[in-house]
Automatic annotation (TrEMBL):
BD-FAE-like domain segment(s): 80-269
Matching PANTHER family: AB HYDROLASE SUPERFAMILY PROTEIN C4A8.06C
Organism: Cellvibrio fibrivorans
Molecular function GO labels: pectinesterase activity
Record keywords, A-Z: Hydrolase
EC number(s) recorded for this UniProt protein: 3.1.1.11
Gene3D superfamilies: alpha/beta hydrolase
Entry-linked Pfam families: BD-FAE
Annotated protein name in UniProt: Pectinesterase
Length: 337
């Protein structure tokens, strides 16, 4: 009888999670998924007593559409939330897909809600997505999911007023690395299993990497990401093994090694904590001779996860919107604010 009750309890939890459909965790009650603005605030408030959690309140100038399923894997539905400018002065608006962080194993798409709102206020259609975390599906499943989200947004461009030729992908921390890898692998079917069955491209026209790694293989990255005291480390859990065991995958997942003449423009928005953006300088050195546009912007005296908090959110939005406006040739008079 106890066994039956346990099964019933689990079934109810799964059903309830599907009904809510708003978070991307492997179990509805997964205690390991603790990467939120609230938990991060508690870690940072001692050193940064002036910070506030960025508001998720949606202003009247922005339309929020929540819990849209963008892809299914059997019974598993991955969803996104969409933020649209209500009064944009241009009919077709650029889009951006945001990928949350959390060490590839935690986090929620609502972590990027404040930035998505900020981008909508600047005239962008912004999507915050859930994707499969490492306890559910290891590398490269998350990249597959992000490409699927870009394809969904492009496929629904007319419905939501998106310019299908102006879709960026961005993210923070692990989400920054995933977003960057998604963008630099445009056209590579290995990272996009749905490509052969769809006429809709999953290519991103610009990349926003917010404090995410560009090279897993460097000594500086492995010092933290392959720490032998962690069993497994966050990266190790994602790859299914340490660097020595899964060297090929650690190399394969590093955006640094995909730079070519067709690489999209990249914004590196970084904190004052250098360990999180390892590899971006080396990546830029590869981009320079190819003439690929890039920008490095640092938020001074900031912690990792700065984009979750005021006073850093608005400067971050300004940098991201400014960079994308330039790449998409959008003048300030064209863009809602």
């Amino acid at each position: 009888m106890t066994h039956v009750n346990n099964i019933l309890h689990f079934t109810i939890l799964v059903w309830f999670a599907a009904l809510l459909g708003c978070q991307n965790i492997t179990r509805f009650d997964d205690p390991a998924n603790t990467y939120t603005p609230e938990t991060t605030y508690q870690k940072l408030i001692g050193e940064y007593p002036f910070i506030d959690i960025a508001s998720r309140a949606v202003p009247v100038s922005v339309q929020e559409i929540k819990n849209i399923t963008y892809i299914r894997y059997g019974q598993r539905a991955l969803q996104l939330d969409l933020y649209l400018p209500k009064s944009a002065l241009i009919q077709q608006k650029p889009g951006i897909v945001f990928v949350h962080g959390g060490g590839w194993r935690a986090g929620f798409r609502t972590n990027f809600t404040p930035m998505a709102i900020g981008m909508a206020e600047r005239g962008y259609v912004a999507a915050t997505i859930s994707y499969r975390l490492s306890p559910e599906a290891q590398y490269p499943a998350a990249v597959h999911d992000v490409k699927a989200a870009i394809r969904w947004l492009r496929n629904n461009a007319k419905k939501y007023g998106v310019n299908p030729q102006q879709i960026a992908v961005g993210g923070g921390s692990a989400g920054g690395q995933i977003a960057s890898l998604t963008g630099v692998t445009n056209g590579l079917e290995k990272f996009d299993p749905k490509a052969k069955k769809s006429s809709i491209s999953s290519a991103a026209q610009a990349i926003v990497n917010i404090d995410g790694l560009s090279d897993f293989t460097s000594e500086a990255a492995r010092f933290h990401e392959d720490d032998p005291r962690k069993n497994p480390s966050a990266a190790g859990a994602w790859f299914g093994g340490r660097y020595a065991e899964k060297t090929e995958l650690w190399h394969e997942a590093s955006p640094l090694f995909y730079v070519n003449k067709n690489t999209p423009p990249i914004l590196f928005l970084i904190s004052a904590q250098e360990r999180f953006s390892v590899g971006h300088k080396e990546m830029i050195e590869k981009m320079k001779p190819l003439g690929i546009p890039y920008k490095v912007a640092q938020i001074p005296d900031s912690p990792h996860s700065f984009w979750l908090f005021d006073p850093w959110l608005q400067p971050s939005v300004d940098v991201v919107a400014g960079f994308l406006d330039q790449q998409f040739k959008i003048t300030r008079s064209d863009n809602a604010r």
